[in-house]
Amino acid sequence: MAIHDLREYVKKTEELGLLKRIDGADWNLEIGGICDLYRRRKSILFDNIKGYPKGYQVMSNVITTEAQPVSQWG
């Protein structure tokens, strides 16, 4: 199964239990530490980042997750 865009990747990763959603993290004090905690375990999608307009998101640990969701799709 080919991946056509990031939305499709997020959806499939979430279905496989390989995505952690974080709501309301601070860009300066929390995002880096949280990424470090989940390194090699899950991809992370940050939403409602403090100090940024609604709708701005950051996704991390996409390539470094040990459980590679792409290998489970085909």
The assembly state of the depicted protein chains is single chain
The low-confidence parts are none
The largest sheet is: 3 strands, mixed
Give the number of DSSP strands.
Answer: 3
Can you walk me through this structure?
Strands 1-2-3 form a three-stranded mixed sheet, with helices on both faces. 14% of the residues are buried. It is of the alpha+beta class. The chain is built from two helices and three strands. Strand 1, helix 2 and strand 2 form a beta-alpha-beta unit. The longest helix is centred in the first third of the chain and has 10 residues, at 6-15. The chain has helices at 6-15, 31-38, and strands spanning 19-23, 43-47, 57-60.
Topology diagram in text:
Blueprint: H1 6-15, E1 19-23, H2 31-38, E2 43-47, E3 57-60
Parallel strand pairs: 1-2
Antiparallel strand pairs: 2-3
Task: Give a quick rundown of the structure.
By secondary structure, this protein is of the alpha+beta class.
